[in-house]
Automatic annotation (TrEMBL):
Residues 30-261 form the Aminoglycoside phosphotransferase domain. This is Aminoglycoside phosphotransferase family protein. SUPFAM superfamilies: Protein kinase-like (PK-like) (SSF56112). It comes from the Bacteria. It comes from Streptomyces achromogenes. PANTHER family: AMINOGLYCOSIDE PHOSPHOTRANSFERASE-RELATED-RELATED, BIFUNCTIONAL AAC_APH. Gene3D superfamilies: 3.90.1200.10, Phosphorylase Kinase, domain 1 (3.30.200.20). It holds the Pfam family APH.
Amino acid sequence: MTLHKDEIHADEVVVRSLLRRQRPEWADLTISPAGAGTDNTMYRLGDQLLVRLPRTPGNAPAVRKEQTWLPRLAPHLPCRIPEPVHEGAPSSAFPLAWSVYRWIDGAEAGPDSVTDWATFGTDLALIVQSLHSAPLMGATGQGELSWYRGGGLRACDRWISLCFDNCLTIEGIDLDIPHLRQLWRSALALPEPSGRQVWLHGDLKPSNLLVRQGKLHGVIDFGCLSVGFPDAEHAPLWDLPPRARQAYWNAMSLDDVVWLRARAWAIAVGVSGVSYYWGTYPLFVNECLSRLHAILEAADER
């Protein structure tokens, strides 16, 4: 499935070719699809490894970023995170950098895997607090560690307004766009974030949260790792049930202004996802629509 105009093709044959040239000791291991996101495609390699290949040239710098920072962050986090074991070089078979990681067992967070959503929300808050408290180790929100979700909402207003306009042109969309736009605009009037910048995962949606024996066990996909203000870090909470959201709120002791800015980031990510992927990635569009409907349903809670 091609999602982007500049997407680089990668399949099991490509992975096998890369391994034969760069890690021949792994070349005869079984290779099987292990999922795909908007930025990467993944293949399980044997029982213990995972190959991750960026979809576009713009996603490739995340390989070096993860290779550099994940080993340094791991000791500060109370959960499993990806452990890089090989940084693949570009080649004629695949012209971008790519990665191999240790395999982490677990199921995507959801009603079939999570035993208690309130506990899950509290555990997620502990992980986020640990990440945000981790020393920066000289890192700054510049270059590869700079990302728009670590800044203020107003810088994204022109882009998100166009996404709202695009959504209004989609036939058959079951979504109260004017109400969402009102919530977005109200957040633009809030004070911009200030204070200490922190490490950000950037995309803590359920598919990046691994569950074992009913409890949160691991966090994966640090491709959006950055340094910035933490408001957008809380945005994926609207992907989770209300009990998890409330437990997270309580554990994080978030004030109303931060919560409303986080909700605006959730709207921005959802609306932009619907606008960009409507005709190419229905599964992701459905995730965005679910998030936006949850926001509308909870709009009067705060």
